[in-house]
Amino acid sequence: MLLTSTILLLAVVCSGCSFHISFKLKNLSGKTIAVNYTVKNIQDGFAPSLLKKTETDGAQSVPIPDDRIRLDIENGSVEFTMFADEIVELDHTIDLRESEYEQAFNLKSLRIAADDGAISLEGLEAFKSFRPIRKRWYTFGPEIVGFEFEYR
C-alpha cells in the first residue's frame, strides 16, 4: 500500500513538471559573426538571450546589449552580432516527446555570416542543424535537455 501511494504521489507531482528546453547557438569560430533569423510565431517571443557563465548555477540569461541587436517586431526578425565564444539562446520550449520538437521549433530561417562566408538555413534544415543534447542516464528530467548549433 505504501509503495503504491508513493508511486501515485510521484506520478502526480511529476505530471505538473515542465522543463525549459533551449535552442542554443555557440560561436566557436574565434571570430565575430552576424546572426539573422525570423520566427514563425511572434506571440511566442523571439528576442534571443545571451548566456553568461556564472560560478553558482552554470549560466545566467541576459539580454543582448542594444548596440548589438535589432528587432523587427512587424516581420518577426532578429539581427545581432555575436562575439567569439558566446552562447545565445535563440528559442526555447517546454519538454516534449522527441518527435514533437520539430513542430515546436519557432525559427523559420537562420543566417550566420562571417568575414569568410555565410550559411543560410530554412525550415526543417534549420531545425536539423541543432544537435539534441541528451540527459545523463542518472538525472531526473526529460530525455532531451536542449539543442545546440555549434558554428565553427
Describe, in plain words, how this protein is organized in 3D.
The protein has one domain. It is built from 3 helices and 11 strands; from the N terminus they run αβββββββαββαββ. It has helices spanning 2-15, 101-104, 123-128; strands spanning 20-27, 33-39, 49-54, 58-63, 69-72, 77-82, 87-94, 107-114, 117-122, 131-134, 144-151. It has a 6-stranded mixed sheet, with no helix packed on it. It has a 5-stranded antiparallel sheet with strand order 5-6-2-8-9. A hairpin with a 2-residue loop joins β8 (107-114) and β9. It is globular and about 40 Å long. It starts with a helix and ends with a strand. The model is unreliable at 3-16 (pLDDT under 50).
Largest sheet at a glance? 6 strands, mixed
Q: In what range is the share of β-strand residues?
A: over 45%
Low-confidence stretches: 3-16
Question: How many structural domains in the coordinates?
Answer: 1
Shape by Cα distribution: globular
User: Could you give the order of strands across the largest sheet?
Assistant: 4-3-7-1-11-10
Report the strand count.
11
Q: Count of DSSP helices?
A: 3
Through-space gap between termini:
56 Å
Amount of helix: 10-25%
User: What is the alpha-carbon Rg in Å?
Assistant: 18 Å
Q: By helix and strand content, what is the structural category?
A: alpha+beta
Task: Round the mean pLDDT to the nearest integer and report it.
Answer: 84
SSE pattern, N- to C-terminal: HEEEEEEEHEEHEE
